[in-house]
Amino acid sequence: MKKFLSFLYIALILAFIYIPIIILVVYSFNKGKTIGIWEGFSLKWYEKLTDIKNVLFNTITLAVVSSLIATVLGTLGAIGIFYNKKKTGKFIKGLSQIPIVNSEVVTACALVLLFIIFRLPHRHIVWLYIGHIILTTPFVVLSVMPKLKQMDGSLYEAALDLGATPTQALFKVVLPEIMPGVFSGFMLAITLSLDDYIVTATLSPLDFDTVSTAVYKAIALTTETASQRVPTYRALTTIIFLLTVAIVVIINVKPNKRRKANENR
Amino acid sequence: MKDVNAVEKKNAASRRRFGFSRQSLCIPYGVFLLFFVLFPLLLVAYYAFTSADGTFTFANFADFFADKTKVSTLLISIIVCILVTALCLVIAYPVAYILAKMKKSVAFIFLMLFITPMWINFVLRAMAMKELLSLIGIPLGNFANIIGLVYDFLPFMVLPLYSTLIKMDKSLAEAAADLGAGKVKVFTSITLPLSMPGVISGAMMVFLPVMSCYVITDTFSGATGFSVVGKLISWCFLGENGTLSNINGGATIALVLLVIMFLTMWLTGGFKDEDGARGTNL
Amino acid sequence: MENKKDKIIELIDLTREFEDGLVAVDGINLYVRKGEFVTFLGPSGCGKTTTLRMIAGFDKPTSGKILLNGKDISDLPPNKRPINTVFQRYALFPHLNVYDNIAFGLKLKKVNTPCQDKNGNGFEKKVKLSKSEIAAKVDKALKMVDLEGFEKRSVSTLSGGQQQRVAIARALVNEPEILLLDEPLGALDLKMRKDMQLELKEMHKKLGITFIYVTHDQEEALTMSDTIVVMKDGVIQQIGTPTDIYNEPKNSFVADFIGESNIFSGTYLGNKKVKFIDKTFDCVDDFEPNEKVDVVVRPEDVEIVDADNGTAKGKIINSIFKGIHYEMTMKVGKTEVVIQDTVEKKVGETVGIVVKPDNIHIMKKEFSSNIYDGYITKKNTVCFGDGEFECDITQLYPGSSVDEEGYLITADGEKIDLTDTDVKVEVGLKDIEISDDQDKGGAVGNIVSILYKGDHYQLIVRTDENEEDFVFDTEDTWNVNDRVGVIIPKDKIKLTLAVENEKDERR
Question: DSSP string spanning A195-257?
Fold first, then answer.
């Protein structure tokens, strides 16, 4: 009975989370525009995705490029902070917390002030990238740090002892050791960048739209042209959802197999 | 003379390193943070205390606190933040608790089910919820606003709670039971207090972003619903059509928000993301 | 023996002071001969690992030199030293398999190879080892540690003992001149440890390279080493062969640390006779007549005889079976004597004991009294040893007294202000008490050492600020690191006026 209630509760909450998405997925194949009125199966909204290919391209380039920079910056930063036992390390670690804690609005507007004071145009693609790097790098640091802490401290020394130069030791031993952290930091950076609305809206050039800002225009501002696109965004949601599910399944099936193989040995 | 030599030797010893040092790797990031994070925040303070022509003034604050709509938006934001955080906590705690008691392999699948939607763009998720609400006939407004916020932030609460509960030493609860504590007593005196770090970091994941998350309120409030402080700041900086309007006023509200953030942080004893909040450890 | 060519490594005045002011290694001097098996032995925190790390190059000496074959290598980074290390927890690279772990150093190595240019002139070029050369060397190394066929295994699937072997192979494959081993067997279980000890010893014999070994396990050190270096507080206590160290410990610390021992306070009577546990024994050492000494007797050197035939007699109060012998405690007067014998005597039985003269090791008492430099305060108390104590200042001038204003009136009626007068303070070993209540007493410190001396303990309490030591005897049981207040009765503080330019000596 207790177990049943537990399952019921979990099922209820999952329903709350998934029903809106599933409705969206179903109606993305609807010929008509309105949810609730089924007018027949169609892939026309998927074909219309080509209309927003610019937006998709912007979003993905922004996410990948800014995350790559953030990963390099954050990984080096984490290694530096970890081996810097003195005050500088603590100071940088503290600074690194600010963008995590701070609300995105304040981060974005503070950047605007920076550009104002140097008399630079406040909406520019470069600022947009910088904004995203600020937002994501601390999370890269956060995911690399535990791997550094877990690493046996004498590994680096062992590499030196066996004849490696400090640079070789860093690339041949330290980096491979923390690679899982670096990778998950990169993935985290990508998701954060894809998800961002506020920084993009504040810093991007006016004609530059990402998925977040484009959808916002459609559902919040509900301008005529933007609202036209809503069914197309249903198709987009469906694709993202299915892609996410696929990635989650692939990532999690592999290690499970390996784990089982280990148990069997 | 001998002493001078010794001191020199000591300095030399601490100076002579093997060329390249690992510590110096944090320099680029440090400079980046100083210039793009710390310095801009100081600018926020500077603009908050100056008028448009650059003279020192408290007028911005006076203006802010004299403006009824602004102050009420701030107060409503705080109340909404607390409400949404509490709702997420009340909904997510049992979920995390049930998952933590499950067999690990099963729990993992459910956990994935809870996390997967986090990877869908949050504006798209808001759109999904908006369409559902219009389908079942819930009008836009305050109620829809709360549902929208809870819907978007709930997954962020589940993860930190689950990871603290799963890390908890099971024998502690068993020990309490062994010493005669009933099930309720075990929960209130052992499980709940020990899961506080997870509660706090989950609450932070929800409380802080909700303050500034005006996308959701813009979507769900319609003509009658409330808005959040973030909207006010953004309004000052973006105006109607993306041009700067009142940066000094905006900086003032940003500073107020900043102070509230740090007060919250200080009261809850800091922010730790080492519990894998936001999926860091996945 | 002192042939310079023989010395492969020499440490000269080697000192390492950490940023927080802790002196881990305090000016040690030492040389190691080619092919020797040297062990640094001592309790944790004695500086043995820091010394090893300086030889490896992971730590830089604050001052002093490290000579390798006569050349100073103090500034050479670890990757440039012909020295390899076996780490405490192996430090195998988890992302590489067994083969790649062992080949790690070989792949980085460049060897001088004779070459010829177009014109046929010979020159030397640094060339990396070829794949087949590396494979051959790795094969050989694996064979040496009995791990053939493990090449492709991931290191995380190996047992502790196997990981240990990989770590040794990884170091030895580079053909170092010196192999450093930092408590390499610490993580293994007892049985495995014994096997590995023998195997390492065997390997050392076969390879002929110098081994420098660090351990806190005295038994391990005694079994394996050619030479043992006993360290404590960053200072070398004794260097010698295992037999020397065991049979002729230089001081009571070494005696206590190496093997089990009875340490008694005694008096040298002269004429090769020493008195301890209230009885007179024959001995072989020579000291000043009536000198206070420490006497060390190994439990296995105490022989049990009939009650009336012994030099001393007493009652057995405790007996434990230890596998090959019984360890019995006997009470002679107030003093406890530990005896090891294969024949058990029942608890309560009265027996006699004798000790052969050459089994009685006599050493100079390290502490006979505490001596400090101090000064008199305005309140006529005395400051020394990081504390302030009440004292009787009249002892500085015979026949003097103190007036109401606090001035000292000498026997001649002269009035002296003693404030800030430098004095020498002497406190006997029996005149110090300690208390859990840190506010009691004049100084506060931590117990840093406890030595059992048969019927009492000798404790050292060290203060934080200037690391002043208070050495004293007590019959109470305390624990190392207890934080205590130091109490010295007013009449037990002996003051003399400091003579200028006299050096600070405490022992």
Answer: H--HHHHHHS-TT---HHHHHHIIIII--HHHHHTHHHHHHHHHHHHHHHHHHHHHHHHHHHH
Does residue A48 sit within a domain?
no
Question: Mean pLDDT of all residues in chain B?
Answer: 82
Question: C402 and C312 share a domain?
Answer: no
CB C304 within 8 A of CB C345: yes
Domain count, chain C: 3
Range of the domain at A195: 56-234
Q: CA A147, CA A82: separation in Å to the nearest integer?
A: 11
The model's pTM is 0.75
Q: Is the pLDDT of residue A48 over 50?
A: yes
pLDDT band for position B270 (50/70/90)? low
Q: What is the ipTM of this complex?
A: 0.87
| One domain for residues C401 and C343 | no
C451 pLDDT above the threshold of 70: yes
- The answer to whether position C143 is within a domain reads no
> Cβ A188–B44 below 8 Å, yes or no?
no
A202/B contact by beta carbon, under 8 A: yes
Cβ count within 10 A of residue C206: 9
> What is the span of the domain harbouring residue C440?
369-497
Q: How far C19 CA lies from chain B's nearest CA (Å)?
A: 9
The one-letter code for the residue type at C116 is Q
- C287 and C388 inside one domain: no
Overall domain count for chain A: 1
Is pLDDT at A265 greater than 50 in this prediction? no
- Whether C350 and C313 have beta carbons less than 8 Å apart is answered as yes
Host H or E run for residue C349:
none
The top-level CATH class assigned to B60-279 is mainly alpha
* pLDDT tens digits, one per residue of C192-215: 888 889 999 999 999 989 999 999
Choose the final residue of a domain: C193, C217, C247: C247
State whether C182 and C296 are in the same domain.
no
Give the list of residues 6+ apart from residue B74 with CB closer than 8 angstroms, or none: B229, B232, B253, B256
Q: What is the CATH number of the domain that holds C319?
A: 2.40.50.140
Residues making up chain A, counted from first to last? 265
Rounded CA gap, A157 and C88, in Å? 12
- Flag whether residue C91 sits within 8 Å of chain A, measured between CB atoms: yes
Q: What residues in B contact A121, CB-CB < 8 Å?
A: none
Same domain, yes or no: C313 and C419: no
CA distance linking residue A265 with residue C174, whole number of Å: 33
Lowest mean pLDDT among B12-26, C245-259, C400-414: B12-26
In a domain, A43, yes or no: no
- Strands (DSSP E) found in C216-322: 227-232, 235-240, 262-270, 273-276, 279-282, 292-297, 303-305, 312-321
CA distance A118 to A115: 5
Residue A14 lies in a domain: no
Q: Are residues C285 and C407 in the same domain?
A: no
Whichever domain contains C38, its CATH number is 3.40.50.300
Residues in A closer than 8 angstroms to C94, CB to CB, are 177
Percent of chain B with pLDDT over 90: 26
**Test the C interface: residue of B18, B21, B22 with most C CBs within 10 Å:** B18
Chains interfacing with B (3 or more CB pairs < 8 Å): A, C
pLDDT of residue B269: 67
Helix count (H) and strand count (E) of chain C? 8, 35
Instruction: Compute the nearest-CA separation of A156 from chain C (Å).
Output: 9
**Which run of H or E residues covers position C184?**
none
Q: Is the pLDDT of residue C114 over 80?
A: no
Whether residue C406 is found in the same domain as residue C476: yes
Instruction: Name, in order, each residue with C-beta under 8 angstroms of B92's C-beta and a sequence gap of 6 or more.
Output: B154, B157, B158, B161, B202
**C312 shares its domain with C422:** no
> For C145-201, how does the pLDDT look when each residue is reduced to its tens digit (9 = 90+)?
889 889 999 998 998 889 999 999 999 999 999 999 999 888 788 888 888 899 999
